[in-house]
Amino acid sequence: MKVGVIGLGDIAHKAYLPVLTTQPGVEPHLHTRTRATLDRTGDAHRIPADRRHDDLDSLIAARPDAAFVHAPTRDHPDIVTRLLTAGIPTYVDKPLAYGLDEARRVVELAESRGVGLTVGFNRRFAPAYAHLVEHPRDLIVMQKHRKGLPEAPRRMVFDDFIHVVDTLRFLVPGAVDRVTVSARVSAGLLHHVVLQLAGDGFTAVGAMNHRSGSAEESVEVSGQDAKREVRNLAEIVDHRGQPSVRRRGDWVPVARQRGIEQAAVAFLDAVRAGRTPSALDALSTHELCERIVMVAIEDHGGQQGTGGAPVTPRR
User: Fold this and answer.
1) pTM attached to this predicted model
2) pLDDT of 244-285, one tens digit each?
3) 199: which strand partners?
């Protein structure tokens, strides 16, 4: 199975290449425009010279069975469009694009051509999060914070808060009929944002502060006098009277802990089986992110924005 890997930055090196280069039957083909990076990466993973491409047309001409796109977000729409047009099933890092119109255009292209497209929302596959759907979820609270990093609203929401948005959509136990957004913007930069999704019998709250003083992530689900908390995707705390703590095993790879390995393998398995992964649900996450950006931009720092069409959950 020929698999293109497009973009050889940190995410490719840390997360995806260690998975793809160890999958049985997978023949990686690398692409980046920087020859030194291409050869350094190819040498590190013992990939022959004829599978190293410094031109995207060259990689497409090799007719890969699937492709992974880890290029900068600004390049996603063009690269993914070229791959889909060539009939190549594609896995692309989130977000698909910074603009909703571009994201919608690419998804519609995949649907109209019947070519598989997957957006890499790995947290849906992270074991600690995936198991949360087995627990009562009357209240869901997710926090993902950073330090000293206020950013332009669109960049912060689509590059970072999108993880919170998609994870809440994954965890909500029913249809969302109420959406509330609040944001703190100063001098054009988004400092923090809070999203609330509510439906029949449940509420989900997601918060991100880019001036929190620490980099951390946590999710809590609770209901029926039981609570489970996940800290930094590695530590699970069950609360039924006396808390019990379980931690990630010392030998569990980070890519597996964060769901990246499982997401990549699920995509490859779908392609092998002749299935056509769809990005329509991922597009719903992008649509909700666009609404959040509009609230941050239009309200200039802290007024609430509510309403809009119901949000579709995904299990």
Assistant:
1) 0.91
2) 777 776 778 888 999 999 999 999 999 999 999 999 999 999
3) 176, 202
